[in-house]
Amino acid sequence: MKQQHSDTELYDVERKTIQRTTVDTKRLLFTRFEDLSNELIYEIFELLDGYDLFEIFSNLNSRFQNLLTHPTLRINMNLSSMSESTFHRCRAFGILPNKHRIKSLHLSSPFAVDLIFSPPRCIPKFSQLKTLILDDINSRYLDQLLHFLTLLPYLSSLILSLADRFRNKMILYPRIFLIPMLKYCKLSYQAGSGRMLLPITTNQCKIAALLSYTPRLRHLSCRKLAYDAYQTMEMPIVPNNLTKASFEFFGLFNFDQFEPLIRKNFRQLHCLRISISKNDRSYLDAKQWERLILTSMAYLRIFDIQYKGWVYMESSGKTQFYDLIDQFNSTFWFDRQWFFAHQSYEKEHAISVLFYSIQPYRRQSYTLYSHPEEKICPHRQQTTFDTVRHLYIDEEQSIANCLFQFPKCTNLTLLKSFCKNCDSTITSLHRIIPLMQLTNLTIRCLNLFFDTIIEVLHSTPNIQILEVDSEYPLELNPISIEQTEKLRLISNENKIQSLTISRGCTSKVAEVFINLCRRVQRIDMNISTNEFESTVRVLLMKHNINSHHLRLLILRYLSVTSFKKIEHMVHAEKLLDNSSIKFVYNRLYLWW
Fold it and tell me: CA 304 to CA 302: how far, in whole Å?
């Protein structure tokens, strides 16, 4: 019996040892967050937005509070999609006490800019700020804002989007160039009927003046370059580091004006990108390009061209046109690995042409066109474009004919026209791009059906930003039982947070979209004057659970009278408990 007892005890000891070893092994596999080193926690902090950082860690133990308040911690603040109450709370405990530690700051409404940078003399207190993004700001604040931004010693990236028109932009550039560490700047403002993006290296006819401020400029980008710019374009001092240039011409700049521009000012280029939208066949003359490159661009390694326009020919136009294009199939171009393709169709004595480089050079956007006749250089090898993030599709037909794939695409823009029943189109589209990874969708069509939107959104459940633009009023046709089920799934599962309806919107359309996009936080729409009030009522009804997440409403092209009516209605009918309303240029901003 003694021997048996000893064996039993030995078994118990071994069993407990095994259990303890198993528990210890499990402990090694799992680490508690508070056991991480300070260095590793700071790396995690770098990945979080400042508001989330304070919400999560400020009320924990003293260790995390000390980490949050350490003077070396740099904070990223993105306040672009907050309710008014949340913003005020973040401003109070996240921004105002930590101005000196904020590294990047993104504000996205006229209200936010007023609240953070008022008065402007507080701006120098953001002493560690490196990146500043301000959307929808009022231009009347711009002069003072830029004056104080010049006092920030580390500001290297500045993006400004103005909510109104601003004409005297040349006053701004001297201030912008005085920001001591600035490396990148983009100014977006209302110009004419649309919005125009102007990098600081661009201005329609004052390029030489701008370049005089930037002696270390490496990359010059000129959009909508006009002949006036050429006339004053010869620069007394050309930046030695200027090796990259991009030009866009829209009908006013001929090749015989472009050639002396290059000869006099851009002989050191390594990279030339040029986009031409005009009817000028001289840009398709390969021999002219060869002479210019050999004599004036000896260092050129990247030649990226896109020409879109009509070429007018004589009776033998088609043969004449192909002879012109075939000049690009020569050893001069092959030796440099510069290959091209073109799409064209003939109409009477003119040929519509899209001629473009097929070496993408890490191009981030690509356009599929629908011309029925396509000629591709025989040396073309690439069918997969890994660098493209934004795909534009000119017409539905171009999808079925596409031989390429865009595996990293996240932004999709559909143009011109798409049919109501587009099941086959969606199938073909999925072959070109992975629809599940799309986050931004823009649909700009002449005549858009709601059925089409349903079909596209059903296959793209991760869309966060949706823009709809229909030249004619959006058609809300009766939907089938199958589409009703799809609509239910889309409403429950889509992730759309920002919705823009540029044209074609009615009060009924707004109601349909708010029921469809139940997580939307921001709506920007252009709606007819006689439907402003009814639309606002629909969107702000307190019992409307579908608009529960909505925080910012922007209505475009309002008169002052319409603004005052809506302002009175919101307060008189108590549509919102707490809100701010502002009128900038011709837009109403309502924030709550």
Answer: 6
Cis upstream peptide for 119 (omega within 30°) = yes
Place of tokens 């983009």: 186
Nearest-angstrom CA–CA distance, 498 and 496: 6
Inter-CA distances, 214 with 186, 210, 262, 491, 513, Å = 15, 7, 19, 51, 47
Model confidence pLDDT, tens digit, residues 388-433: 999 999 878 788 878 889 999 999 999 877 765 577 788 889 999 9
Between CA 583 and CA 561 the distance in angstroms is: 11
Contacts 24+ apart (CB under 8 A), 39-47: 41/67, 42/67, 42/73, 45/73, 46/74, 46/76
Tell me the C-alpha distance between 277 and 224, whole Å.
10
Q: Are 282 and 288 in contact (CB under 8 A)?
A: yes
Question: CB of 446 within 8 A of CB of 471?
Answer: yes
Is there a contact between 164 and 584 (Cβ–Cβ < 8 Å)?
A: yes
Question: Cα dihedral sign for 71, 73, 78, 84?
Answer: negative
Q: Could you report how far apart the first and last alpha carbons of the chain are, in Å?
A: 82
For 539-581, how does the pLDDT look when each residue is reduced to its tens digit (9 = 90+)? Answer: 998 767 788 899 999 999 999 999 999 999 999 999 998 899 9
Q: Which residues contact 86 (CB under 8 A, 6 or more apart)?
A: 51
Burial of 30 per CB tally in 10 Å (0-12, 13-18, 19+)? exposed
